[in-house]
Design brief:
The chain is an alpha+beta fold. It has 29 helices and 20 strands. The protein has a five-stranded mixed beta sheet. The protein has a five-stranded mixed beta sheet with strand order 7-6-10-8-9. Strands 12-14-13-15 form a four-stranded mixed beta sheet. α7 crosses α8, α8 packs antiparallel against α9 and α10 crosses α11. Bound molecules: manganese (II) ion.
Length: 735
């Protein structure tokens, strides 16, 4: 295809001018010049490059800058950095060129972006290590992370042109880290879009069907909302409140999650959307206006008493402020109503940067609100976490994710000091949050004057007094009921130190014993003991000895037993992952169900794929290639941690081997329904029932059937037929 360069250049300029227009409100004197310089530098540097889609590469940095400005609300420095974000990595320009031309601030951000660019490109521990580096930059300059998110968002929006295996890998990383990160930074709109795009590429069918249904029900929703607001509109006006009302549907991703979790179809989700009342308030009237609106809404609609959420008095740690209530509508349906001001709405959608903008504005009340500290506190915690250098990178990522997902619980010390902890925290977490020494010696607690054990889960508003004893010390058990990363880390530290001490004891027992039986303590004798006692490593051995799991007199036997040398057989190397992956990828991916393939593969038990399913291969170290469905619950973890071991897989056209699949049926119980079900199955050729489990309870019929089917199409056909059986309400696949 011929490329019309002139047309392309016009399009580049058009996009650049739009960026300039949208950036106008954030620009200060002199900014247009520097932006122009950045644009032309990037344009020149990327001039011979094209994206996978064939488009000029410069579209990408322009789009990233556009997102940074329009959707995150960042300023000129970020805009310039976004335009230049790929030049150091992909072109001949160097960091010192950037520093010379754009100053140290921009250079530092780009340095951060370049360093973290390969976060997932390599092996798992290295990935984690890189991720740790990425988070490290968070404490330097949050803008690095924000631009990285803009970069990721644009890559997700343009994922179509990537090959399938890359799509899966990128989508999984996104759901594993970037979406939670966006959430934690309060970038709600971006988080939602990332999640939806993830679903689009991993479960396309479901994504399409939900988004279609959302569109189809739009008119009904609009009608519902306009009916709903009729009675309250007048009162809001009379109270002198300026407001807009909109109805926001839930995201496709969260609808899907709900459908899966509760096993219900789209039609049965009652809280498909929330009604949002956005008030135009003077800064000092914000809180009272919101409560005024609340009072008006609940004058007309009865609220559910346990569904009131006040994030205005105590905002979430990511800065979110809003008043939520769930009320009974005139049509007998529960509806969530969110009440907030424009400022709060802006922060809720755009997050950190919007938050910052308001923070920098002159403070009208003169008081620092707790919300302004929430996010900074979090960043402070992350910083503490990173600075512990003895922490393995993988542990770090696990803990960090834990932190990302957690909502908070608020508790108080006896003196009334507020302590914020991750949701699900226990009295022990509270103790460690106050001070490590208090945590280490924590014996129990008094929560609201009542004596409770360490493992007691805290609720919002609890007043907690920690009881300590000098004799108390941490044990492995403690790790089971702490959730905060701080408590976890401190307990692990303690146990590690403790293990070191115990191991040293065990070691000296062994040394004495060996002296007694006149053996040298060296590598060879250690090897013998490890083999004989089947210990993983020397530390384990020492600890077992110290704890008398291995008695000293047994040690002698290690030297009497015949020497067993483990031979490395061909089987035990089974697969050299690197070589295998390369071989498979070179041949264009694994074709399964094809006898000619020399690679060993098997179907993963966690998701039981059948022909026709969307699948990928995962090279396991000892069991060949495992085939998983892309919707497998483990897929995200596998792909994001071990992306390099994921291989492309496609189904051969024909296969005679049957596959196991499960069907879950629900319906109204009646005579003969089981017969009807089995008749449908046995009418289908080559389908064999492996097991069938029927439950009836209070007139409800529930069945779980495991069958051998030929492929996904046959399975779908079977499900369709089942749905036509009278009184069957739902038919779904069991993973
Ligand atoms: Mn990029």
């Amino acid at each position: 295809m011929e490329i019309d360069l002139e047309k392309e250049n016009k399009e580049i300029l058009r996009r650049y001018r739009k960026l300039l227009r949208d950036a106008k409100p954030i620009m200060q004197e002199g900014d247009p010049l520097i932006i122009k310089k950045a644009f032309y530098t990037a344009l020149e540097a990327h001039k011979d490059m094209r994206r996978k889609s064939g488009e000029p590469y410069i579209y990408h940095p322009i789009a990233v800058a556009q997102i940074a400005v329009e959707e995150i609300g960042l300023g000129t420095t970020s805009l310039v950095a976004a335009l230049l974000h790929d030049v150091v990595e992909d072109t001949s320009l160097e960091l010192r060129d950037i520093k010379r031309d754009f100053g140290p601030k921009v250079a530092k951000i780009i340095d951060g972006l370049t360093k973290i660019s390969g976060v997932f490109d390599s092996r798992s521990s290295l990935q984690a290590e890189n991720f740790r580096k990425m988070i490290l930059t968070l404490s330097d300059d949050v803008r690095v992370i924000l631009i990285k998110l803009a970069d990721r968002l644009h890559n997700m929006r343009t994922l179509d042109s990537m090959p399938r295996d890359k799509q899966l890998k990128i989508a999984s990383e996104t759901i594993f880290l970037y979406a939670p990160l966006a959430h934690r930074l309060g970038l709600y709109a971006i988080k939602t879009e990332l999640e939806d795009l993830y679903l689009k590429y991993t479960n396309t069918e479901r994504y399409n069907s939900i988004s279609q249904k959302i569109k189809q029900t739009q008119a009904a929703r609009d009608k519902f909302i306009s009916d709903f607001i009729i009675p309250i509109k007048d009162s809001l006006n009379k109270a002198g409140l300026k407001f807009t009302i909109k109805g926001r549907p839930k995201s496709i991703f969260s609808i899907n999650k709900k459908m899966d979790k509760q096993g219900i179809p789209f039609e049965q989700i009652y809280d498909l959307f929330a009604i949002r009342i956005i008030l135009d308030s003077e800064p000092e009237e914000e809180k009272s206006d919101c409560w005024k609106a609340y009072s008006i809404v609940t004058d007309f609609y009865k609220p559910s008493p346990d569904r009131l959420r006040d994030w205005i008095s105590t905002p979430k740690a990511n800065g979110y402020e809003s008043l939520h209530t769930t009320v009974m509508s005139g049509t007998g349906q529960w509806v969530e109503v969110q009440i907030r001001t424009h400022r709060m709405d802006d922060i809720a959608e755009k997050g950190y940067a919007a938050h910052w903008k308001y923070k920098e504005a002159p403070n009208t009340t003169g008081k620092a609100t707790p919300k302004q500290n929430g996010l900074e506190q979090w960043i402070q915690k992350v910083r503490e976490m990173i600075e512990r250098n003895d922490y393995s990178a993988l542990e770090f990522v696990a803990d960090f994710r834990q932190n990302l997902f957690n909502e908070e619980v608020f508790a108080f010390t006896p003196k009334g000091k507020l302590v914020t902890l991750p949701n699900g925290s226990t009295a022990l977490d509270f103790a460690f949050e106050i001070h490590t020494e208090i945590g280490v010696h924590c014996l129990g607690a008094k929560v609201n004057q009542k004596l409770v054990p360490l493992s007691h889960k805290l609720n919002n508003g609890d007043q907690v007094e920690i009881l300590t004893s000098a004799k108390q010390k941490p044990s492995e058990d403690w790790l089971k009921f702490v959730v905060s990363s701080k408590a976890r880390a401190r307990i692990k530290d303690y146990l590690k130190d403790d293990r070191k001490k115990i191991a040293a004891e065990g070691k000296s027992i062994i040394e004495r014993k060996l002296k007694q039986i006149k053996k040298d303590f060296n590598a060879e004798s250690l090897q013998k003991m490890l083999a004989y006692f089947n210990a993983k490593n020397a530390i384990e051995l020492y600890i077992d000895v110290a704890r008398e799991i291995i008695e000293p007199k047994e040690i002698k036997r290690a030297f009497e037993a015949p020497v067993i040398v483990k031979k490395i057989t061909e089987e035990s190397i089974a697969i050299n992952p690197d070589a295998a992956i390369k071989q498979i990828q070179d041949s264009g991916g694994l074709v399964i169900g094809d006898n000619l393939q020399s690679v060993d593969y098997s179907y993963a038990k966690c998701c039981n794929p059948i022909p026709g399913d969307d699948v990928f291969g995962f090279v396991s170290v000892s069991e060949g290639v495992k085939i998983h469905r892309t919707s497998c619950p483990n897929a995200v973890e596998l792909m994001s941690h071990y992306g390099y071991r994921v291989i492309k897989v496609r189904w051969a056209n024909q296969t005679d081997l049957p596959f196991q699949a499960g069907i879950y049926l629900k319906g109204a119980d009646r005579m003969g329904i089981v017969n009807d079900v089995t008749r449908v199955i046995s009418n289908e050729l080559k389908v064999n029932i492996r097991s069938i489990l029927i439950n009836t309870n209070d007139g409800v019929f529930e069945g779980k059937i495991t069958l051998d089917v030929q492929d996904g199409r046959q399975f779908d056909r079977l499900c369709m037929k089942m749905k036509t059986i009278p009184d069957i309400i739902s038919v779904s696949r069991i993973i």
